[in-house]
Design brief:
Number of helices: 7
Helix content: 25-40%
Structural class: alpha+beta
Shape: elongated
Largest sheet: 8 strands, antiparallel
Distance between the termini: 41 Å
Low-confidence stretches: 5-17
Mean pLDDT: 93
Strand content: 15-25%
Oligomer: single chain
Length: 271
């Protein structure tokens, strides 16, 4: 009995220590200022690979080469280092690919630190390319805009489920029962179908329902909700939001590269 109690205490102690593991803090220093970021412990593959490259100095001297106002600033690509004006840059590195760690509680609010990836047609499992990263600027949304986004996403899903459940044969049978005023028979057929539609809709992974945390963030600090569930968010800016805005407001060329280079001087882990 004592052995069992000791084992349980040990397991709870280990679990508690893991849950309280301090988050790693890094500072991204640029010629436009510093951004302090914390990395999430529940995205360990991204955290560890990012820190591994930070310690090597991999990102030092690279550029924020893709800048889109009210959207994001993206940098870290090796081919951006010392790249002359007008050169196409930002190609990924397959050696830096890690499995996705997309979590519903980590979303694209302003300051979100995220990993880009190749498109779904060549990367169906949404694996990230941590050879570079992006930080969200986004914008502030009105509650009604979020409601509209949910409807625009969810109504087609509901219609498709209804179409699959209410086949022409089923519709004809319901219409016949209704015409013959066979109320009990109509309800006996219709009610399970209605329940089936609601169940399939509720279980559909593509249905969009913004959480309270998402709604609060997107209507206050802002962000870019259209990216949620599509890319891994592995950290967030905790200081230096003004630097995001400075970089995002720069004039850019046709490839979204700032006309004035935004250099990542270095990234250092401070905790």
């Amino acid at each position: 009995m004592k052995k069992i109690v000791f084992l349980l205490v040990f397991l709870f102690t280990v679990a508690g220590a893991k849950a309280q593991e301090p988050e790693h803090i890094v500072v991204i220093s640029t010629n436009f200022g510093d951004m302090k970021c914390k990395l999430y412990n529940d995205t360990p593959k991204h955290r560890d690979k990012f820190l591994q490259e930070v310690k090597k100095g991999y990102y030092n001297g690279t550029l924020f080469y893709r800048v889109i106002r009210n959207f994001l600033v993206q940098g870290g690509a090796a081919d951006s280092r010392n790249a002359p004006p007008g050169k196409l840059i930002g190609y990924g590195n397959p050696a830096f690919t890690v499995d996705d760690e997309i979590r519903p509680d980590h979303f694209h609010k302003k300051g979100a630190l995220c990993a880009p990836r190749q498109p779904d047609d060549v990367n169906p499992f949404k694996q990230s390319d941590i050879s570079q990263f992006y930080i969200v600027e986004g914008r502030v949304y009105r509650p009604g805009e979020l409601d509209t986004m949910e409807l625009a996403n969810n109504v087609p899903i509901k219609k498709q489920i209804i179409k699959q459940v209410l086949t022409p044969e089923v519709k004809a049978k319901l219409a016949k029962l209704k015409k013959e005023k066979k109320v009990d028979e109509f309800r006996a057929l219709a009610n399970p179908l209605k329940q089936q539609i609601e169940t399939e809709y509720a279980l559909n992974p593509h249905v969009l329902n913004f959480s309270k945390a998402q709604r609060k963030a997107y209507t206050t600090v802002g962000g870019y909700p259209e990216l949620d569930g599509k890319y891994t968010v592995f950290g967030e800016v905790i200081d230096g939001f003004d630097v995001i805005d400075k970089i995002a407001s720069l004039k850019t060329d046709k490839n979204d590269r700032p006309l004035e280079d935004v250099k990542i001087v270095n990234i250092n882990e401070i905790r």
